[in-house]
Design brief:
Blueprint (H helix, E strand, L loop, with lengths): L4 E6 L4 E3 L8 H5 L2 E9 L2 E2 L2 H14 L6 H10 L6 E9 L13 E8 L8 E5 L17 H12 L4 E5 L5 E4 L3 E6 L2 E5 L9 H9 L2 E4 L3 H6 L2 E6 L3 E8 L2 E2 L4 H15 L5
Parallel strand pairs: 7-8, 7-14, 11-12
Antiparallel strand pairs: 1-2, 1-6, 3-4, 3-5, 5-6, 8-9, 10-11, 10-13, 13-14, 14-15
Length: 269
């Protein structure tokens, strides 16, 4: 298959190419959906089983029937796609009223061809105001707040921005998880603060001893090193925090190299 993007809808038995989300679907009307984003390289989705498990958890949280067959069939949609791409799998509440139970969840898959930027690292800022994570940091269709903060960050010349939650605790970046390194200790905000427990975040926690703790803005400034993770960028060192040079990027670059090696050996599918 060639082209720059594709979309599919599950019709109850198979995926149908190119069907739009109906306006009656509560994922469209109210943002009642859960999703997972994943990198696809030459037709192979990375960490597919881990992403599928997170979709299941999200469905369980909202009492959606989990469409196990559809999610597993989604894996095969990417075969034949060339180069790198970015995919999302959505499970929506389907048709019904705002308080009705979910009987027939919708399943939608989008894929777009992308090329990763070749950058030495990220330049980030700190977002103003208090960020209030919803539903314990689950990935849902209510994502606009993150993207609006990201838009403002880009206007300011940053690649991303750090979100501060209640009492000034660190949550994450707008579209990535956050890690700090100080005196050799790797720390990341605890999920209790509303962190999205992403696949790459868990991969890092499985590769290195990582402390999941409450962190505050002062910890950000005291860090020797900062790096970000998500399914598209992988592991990205932070070079500057609001114009101030971050002292090191050794741990993040080492993990990024280990991730690339795992990709080449086919260990991430």
């Amino acid at each position: 298959m060639t082209g720059t993007d594709a979309s599919w809808c599950w019709d109850g038995e198979q995926f149908v190419r190119g069907r739009d989300v109906p306006a009656s679907d509560r994922g469209f009307r109210y943002g009642m959906s859960v999703f997972e984003s994943l990198r696809v390289a030459d037709g192979v989705p990375e960490f597919f089983s881990a992403h599928a498990d997170r979709l299941r958890r999200g469905c369980d949280f909202f009492s959606f029937p989990f469409p196990a067959l559809a999610v597993e069939e989604a894996r095969g949609l990417f075969r034949g796609l060339n180069g790198e791409g970015f995919a999302r799998i959505y499970v929506t509440a389907g048709p019904g009223g705002p308080t009705d139970s979910v009987e027939r969840p919708g399943v939608w898959v989008n894929w777009e061809k992308r090329e990763r930027r070749s950058v030495e690292g990220f330049r980030i800022g700190i977002a103003g105001g208090e960020f209030v994570p919803i539903f314990g940091g689950l990935k849902t269709g209510n994502y606009w707040r993150n993207l609006e903060v990201l838009r403002q960050a880009r206007i300011a010349g940053w690649d991303d921005a750090v979100l501060l939650g209640a009492g000034g605790q660190l949550v994450s970046a707008c579209v990535a998880n956050l890690f700090l390194v100080e005196a050799g200790r790797i720390r990341t905000p605890a999920v209790e603060g509303g962190v999205r427990s992403g696949v790459l975040r868990e991969w890092v926690c499985g590769e290195e001893p990582v402390e999941e703790v409450r962190l505050e803005e002062r910890d950000l400034w005291a860090a020797d090193e900062i790096f970000l993770t998500n399914s598209w960028i992988g592991i990205a060192p932070v070079l500057e925090l609001e114009g101030r040079t971050v002292r090191s990027s050794e741990v993040g670059r080492g993990l990024a190299l280990k991730l690339e090696q795992a990709r080449h050996t086919g260990l991430l599918s």
